[in-house]
Amino acid sequence: MTVTLFIPCFVDALFPRAGISMVEILERLGHKVVFPEAITCCGQPPFNSGYWDEARTVAAKVLPQLANAEAVVIGSGSCGAMLKVFYPQLFENTPQAALAKQISGRTWEFSDFLVSQLGVTDLGAKFPHKVTFHDGCHGLRELGIKKSPRALLGKVNGLELVEMSEAETCCGFGGTFAAKFPMISTAMGEVKCASAVETSAEYIVSNDSSCLMHIQGLLSRQGNPLKTIHLAEVLNQR
Amino acid sequence: MSFVSQFKAQAQVMTGDLRHRKFIRRALRNYETVRDARKASFQDWPGARQRAAETKWQAVNHLDQHLEQFAAKLESRGTKVHWATTAAQAREIILKIVHDKQAKSVIKSKAMTSEEIHLNDALEHAGLNVVESDLGELIVQLRKETPYHIVFPSMHLTRDEISELFQRELGAAATNDPEELTMIARRALRKKYLTADIGITGANFAIAETGMISITENEGNARLTAALPKTMISLLGIEKVLPRMDDLALFLPLLATMGTGQQLTCYNTLYSGPRQPGETDGPEEWHVVLLDNHRTELLADAEQRDALHCIRCGACLNVCPIFRNVGGHTYGTTYSGPIGSVITPHLRGLQEWKHLSSASSLCGACTETCPVKIDLHHHLLQNRRNAAKQKPSFGEQTAFKLFAFAANRPTLWNFGMTMARIFQPLQGAVKGSMLDPAKAWTKTRDLPPIAPESFKAWWRNRK
């Protein structure tokens, strides 16, 4: 299968290891990976702030890049939800409505793609650490992904998964929300971090780097040794 | 101070109150435990939820017919039905009844609609003595506060705080025994029921088929409020309607489960009219005031009409991480939490209240829990869109236009990223200070370093 990777802007600039891991995993599984370099961002920041015209301007450049993709795979529930759930709404009653719908139907979050589309859970990964998993809200509630990442983690050699009580609670990132209401965003992040610390895990794993950026930002400031890592990086450890 | 500045200032105070945050979170986690136990006693919870959503959809989409049927049935048994388009009209209607009856004192059971129209203030200005009979409502009334939560009005207070209040306001002895505190309130209230000229209630459901209102409660105070005074007034929003009596078989347990984690509340009463010939008790007159107050505008909005499904169970507040961290009073609204953030812009003005829709990470916990399947977090997004379309903020719109301009020019975008990487070390020197362009983030959080090699660069190099 030819897999078209959508690399979110923050993964490109801040967390390239997550993207690289996805390429390596998919290639090891025998798939051809394509990366449209002209894509910069999915348009979520203006979209979530209510500026849909500006979001449409950005998203309209993304659509033709993905028009012929067999499968679009994204290592983020948040950008995944943007393409899969919100593009059809954003382009409703526009000439690109049909294309947005088609792409939506062919777009997958990375862990979900591995498990539900490729039927793979065991990637032969080895990560001898105690970890806890953070469910990003967009992946969990917009895309309904809960089991796939856990199925994948369950097959990682040496990995011990300990669930935190606030696994499904929002980390407080929320895009522009984190800057508009930093006090609320920070308070939410503190609840998340405290819950992760309770598990005495060494790593917080998630399928969304944007949440991890927020969580890691708080942990580093607190001087907490707990580390964050993207699911794809865990699955790529040999 | 604008509503948004007030909200931000209060959010700053409340998120800094760690004791309060812990107290509220613990209470609401306990709620989750009992709620889940009750949910498990439904044979098919998703099915029950779907059925409830469909019933409310039917009720709201044919609201005109159901309301006419409801009013006609009420009138056939001698109830006086009043239609109030605005909050001011509702107050006038109630004040007129009160004046006609030359009433001096009013006893009330819990009604969020009365908070919505600021009824107590209006009655007190008219010289009446008004007493809330719901324990939680009585507590916040004595504190001269608004309810903290639509179902648990005084959940923010400890037993000791309540005891101090009762000592000060009711001359009670000090105690922190919940039963004794309840008895203090009960003794104070019993006298009020007997002397009140008017009893004012809200309603949980309005049954169109039979012309009855349903009130669910745990203290029996609404029953006494309805039964003892000679005149009863019920104030309810027009969205409270349910088509059939049978619908209660689902909605009573649904509301109890999600509201308080009970199978059913202790008292579930149906009121069908004033005292009929040959009956020995009940009010001589019953007035039902049906309140619109911008609900029909919400009804006209096909996208957000389902917000009228709300049965005011408070479940979305309970699971909301924003509510849990800022508390109920921070919102500055009658209806707080996700449902309040959705409907307040419709009830009180989009531009003045749009900040509540922005004060959300759009996590969707509210939508996931709502028993009548209101698409709450997507409505927050739609409010943001509607607000920006109606009156864009110059700064924000310009920023997003620039963002879109750069995003559509990959070379420019990549150049920007390179510049950011080069200049990021300088940001470290001003981190979190007034000079830091990212201070909203860096005051409490570190920024990750921009990677020396971006994914794009890696991709190109390997080819």
Folded structure, characterized:
By secondary structure, chain A is an alpha/beta fold. Chain A has 2 domains: 2-117; 130-235, Rossmann fold, CATH 3.40.50.11810. In chain A, 52% of the residues lie in helices and 13% in strands. Chain A has 13 helices and 8 strands. Chain A is globular. The mean pLDDT of chain A is 97. In chain B, α16 runs antiparallel to α17, α16 (337-348) runs parallel beside α19 and α17 crosses α19 (376-390). The model of chain B has no long low-confidence stretch (mean pLDDT 96). The chains are: A alpha/beta (238), B alpha/beta (463). The interface between A and B is large, with 62 and 63 residues.
Short note summarizing the structure:
With 238 residues, chain A is α/β, with parallel strands linked by helices.
Features:
heterodimer, A: Rossmann fold, four-stranded parallel sheet, 52% helix, B: 463 residues, alpha/beta, Rossmann fold, four-stranded mixed sheet, 23 helices, 10 strands, globular
Kindly report the spatial arrangement of strands forming the biggest sheet of chain B: 1-10-7-4-2-3
Strand count, sense and barrel status of the largest sheet of chain A are:
4 strands, parallel
Q: Within the CATH hierarchy, at the fold level, what is the topology of the domain at 54-293 in chain B?
A: Rossmann fold
Number of helices of chain B: 23
Low-confidence stretches of chain B: none
Distance between the termini of chain B: 58 Å
**Going across the major beta sheet of chain A, what is the strand order?**
2-1-3-4
The chain-level structural class of chain B is alpha/beta
In helices, the fraction of residues of chain B equals 55-70%
Shape of chain A: globular
- Uncertain segments of chain A: none
Biggest interface goes to: A-B, 62 and 63 residues
CATH top level class name of the domain at 54-293 in chain B:
Alpha Beta
Radius of gyration of chain A: 17 Å
Helix content of chain A: 40-55%
What does the average pLDDT of chain B come to?
96
Number of DSSP E strands of chain B = 10
Q: How many E strands of chain A?
A: 8
Estimated share of beta-strand residues of chain B: 5-15%
